[in-house]
Amino acid sequence: MDFYQQIFQYIITGLTIGAIYAIVAMGFNIIHNATGIVNFAQCEFISLGGMFMYSLVVLFKVNLIIAFFMSMAGVSLIGALIEIGPIRHARSKEIIILIFLTIGLSEVLRGAAQEVWGTDNVGVPAFSGETPIHLPGGAAIVPQHIWVFAITVVVMLMLRYFFKKTLMGKAMRATAVNRRAAALAGISVNRMVLFSFAFSGALGAVAGMIIAPISSTSYDTGIMLGLKGFAAAILGGYGNFAGAILGGIILGILESLGAGLISSQYKDAIAFFVLLLVLFLKPTGIMGYGESERV
Amino acid sequence: MLKHKDYLCFGILALVIVAIPLFVESKYYFIVLNVIGLNTLVVVGLNLLIGFAGQISLGHAAFYGLGSYFSGILTVNYGFPLWPAMLVGMLATGAVAYLIGYPSLKLRGHYLVMATLGFGIIINILMGELEQFTGGHDGLMGIPPLTIGGLAFDNDLKNFYLIWSFVFFFMLAARNLLNSRVGRALRAINGSEVAANSLGVNTADYKVKVFVLSAMFASISGSLYAHYITFISPSSYDFYYSIQVVTMVIVGGMGSLWGSLFGAGILTFMSEALHVAKQYHIIAHGIFLCLVLVFLPEGIMVGIYNFFLKRKTRKVIN
Q1: Looking at the complex, does the CB of residue B121 fall below 8 Å from at least one CB of chain A?
Q2: Cβ distance B83 to B254 under 8 Å?
């Protein structure tokens, strides 16, 4: 394989992983827009998605498509329970307290996952075989990568439709802009926050499930993926949906090129170094405006 | 300026520090106490940032680690004298913290979380990969113990006195700072950033300075750790350590100086006690953190104190 083919291959891998970061970043953004907090339990949503999928498909031999939707529903239920329980009943509503609370919740979920599944890495079968498809020019692409792209695009289109066209989506956007005004307009803010947690649970689960066949999964795979998804969200401009996609893809490609051309040991370091650079040069992210506060 | 109550509290702390070796004999307890002391140093610094500037850092393991590795590398590989190496570590860590804090603290929002988180992960990777300096994942061995004159701090008891003297003086310094104009400015920022700004407090500037200061506290603690244990490896400075110290701040009470000591004490002790059942460590840690945050967001000590205080006032009203 010559140099350009290799670069091409890295870019395909980068796009795949970037698509996953973008989905995770969306999950962070939805909760951020509804509540103003950073939900670190998002990392566990990813792990849980992968592990539910593993249990259903490998251990209980459930049909792949049914398993996909069951895991999604399961994790989104966990997301909702997190909101109904601790987040809603926290005695202090200060943002800093709630952020720490999500860190605590993420530890509880990770600890529980460790109890249930142990610490081993497990594999999940690819959605449609492992035979690579050869592209003109000599590069090859594994079917699972195509699945990742396709599912990401579908998820993005559905989210776009939901937020632009449906009443509930519009209500969620209104809540993001101004909670009090939304409440005055008759929107149940509590319910919107609940939905946002359920949604990001589902998004996290999707991310965890589609990457599981590519890199094996375990009770804590979500940490690095989640943190990089958060990085992608910040990179694109926190809270901005187009930014999340752009941030995810840039991060994915740079990481993959860095791992291929420089050193795979520094893969994670490169991703976060890019992030620090962006924070240094344009702290609001590529498409962000920064935050202003009314008094 | 110290107030009368502070003299009393610090007097008691000094007495306790001096008295502990009279009652404790087991080497194991000294190790636990020393780790509590080291964590307290980090937590006091971090609490200045979280409790007073209202900012989150998830990268304090990196600053702690920078202190350790500066001390370790300079003394082992380059034969630096011990105390100057510690000072260099502290200043370099402060400079790095300034570089990270300056751009991310100019804005409101969660930029510092991300910057510190990313920085922490990068530093942790570099510790493992820059083998020719750091010894890689196997760690760096043979770090000499600290000495003053002819006295070498080479056992647990001697290190107990050394570490806890540092804790004593740094807590004193923090209390002094909080009672000064700077402390009042920080409290104002925590109350309302906009109000503080309009009253002439340069909020961004104060936040960056507090962040740098808290990084330096962590660096000193890291240096002491390196010279005490004489062996350092990257696994002591990972993301979990950053979360652990943040938890200590919360459990002790954000913005409570004595709470820092309490939080570091109770959580260090808990993780030692759970050592036998290591797989339950994460979940126990998480449940503890959640319970405190949901029911006692002011921290255990302040929360219980307020609880009784409120009951008292209610009685008076009745």
Answers
A1: yes
A2: no
pLDDT digits (tens, 9 = 90+) for B56-115: 899 999 999 999 999 999 999 898 889 999 999 999 999 999 998 888 887 766 788 888
Instruction: Provide the domain limits for residue A120.
Output: 3-281
What are the CA-CA distances from residue A33 to residues A140, A162, B57, B105 (Å)? 39, 15, 22, 21
ipTM confidence score: 0.86
Residue A121: inside a domain:
yes
Contacts of B128 in chain A (CB under 8 A): 265
In a domain, B169, yes or no: yes
Residue B240 touches partner A, C-beta closer than 8 Å: no
Position A291 in a domain: no
Domain count, chain A: 1
Is pLDDT at A84 greater than 80 in this prediction?
yes
CB atoms within 10 A of CB B173: 13
Residue at A292 is within a domain: no
Q: Decide if B212 touches A, using CB distance below 8 A.
A: no
Q: Which of A291-295, B226-230, B287-291 has the lowest mean pLDDT?
A: A291-295
Q: Strand, coil or helix: what is A265?
A: helix
The pTM score is 0.89
Cβ contact, residue pair A100, B246, below 8 Å: yes
CATH number reported for the structural domain that contains residue A198 in this entry: 1.10.3470
Q: Determine whether the interchain pair A293/B118 forms a contact, defined as Cβ–Cβ distance below 8 Å.
A: no
What residues of chain B lie within 8 A of the CB of A105, using their CB? 286, 290
Q: What is the number of structural domains in chain B? A: 1
Q: Give domain status of residue A293, yes or no.
A: no
- Which chain A residues are closer than 8 Å to B129 by Cβ? 265-266, 269
Strand partners, B232: B140
Q: What is the DSSP letter of A127?
A: B
